[in-house]
Amino acid sequence: NRLPNVSAQPTAFVQREHEVRVVWAASGKTRINATAAYVDRKHQALAVRDYAGARGNLSVQWAATGKSGMQLTLARDIGSYQTNTSSYSTSNRLSLYPYWSVGPHTVLYASLDAARYAFEGTLPGMAGNNRRDRGTGADHQPGFRPGEGLRIGIVIEELAPDLADRHQTIGAGLIQLHEQ
User: Fold this and answer.
1) Which of 7, 46, 169, 176 is buried most deeply by CB count within 10 Å?
2) Pairing of strands 68-80, 88-101
3) Could you tell me the end-to-end alpha-carbon distance of the chain, in angstroms, rounded to an integer?
């Protein structure tokens, strides 16, 4: 992460984002959300770390019944990722989130994700590696809402990186407390 005699970690930057959001209730059961933005990040003392580009998402939420539904999301993001071979990364993701309300305080969630990542902005004098990653993920999450201000959940997640040298499954568990 370091160049000889050079600090490649910027200490100051200005980031501007111009964003447009649209929410449309297409029907009584369908809602469409869209966000489009342009991100421009300038580093005052290290211009080689500058980046600019589009980010946004399009999601369709469908309430199939009063107790079940799903959301389909297509998203693009851009953000800082600083190494000798990258200054920023972009990602493109497709996600599906079904849910089912089991009872008045209990909901089961799931998600399926497929993403592609690109790492850009190689520093001068360094060999770029044109790194591109693909990943898929799935998780299941029971949620319990004992009251208005609290949600308790357990996340069971499986991630399967789609890289030629890493076809392993990674599992994780987590208890979440959310303030609403």
Assistant:
1) 46
2) antiparallel
3) 39
Q: pLDDT tens across 142-169, in order?
A: 776 676 666 666 655 555 544 443 433 3
Q: What is the DSSP letter of 122?
A: P
Residue 113: beta bridge partners?
95, 137
Q: 14: which 2 tokens?
A: 């200005």
Global confidence as pTM: 0.72
Q: How far apart are CA 131 and CA 128, in angstroms?
A: 8
Nearest to 109 by CA among 67, 149, 65, 66: 67
pLDDT, tens digit, 9 for 90 and up, residues 4-14: 455 555 568 88
- Collapsing DSSP to helix, strand or coil, 161 comes out as strand
Give the three-class secondary structure for 62. Answer: strand
Q: Taking the mean position of all CA atoms in its chain, how far away is CA 122? A: 23
Distances (CA, A) of 39 to 12, 31, 83, 131: 16, 26, 20, 22
The Cα–Cα gap between 157 and 129 comes to: 30
* Confidence band for 104, pLDDT divided at 50, 70 and 90: confident
Identify the three-state secondary structure at position 90: strand
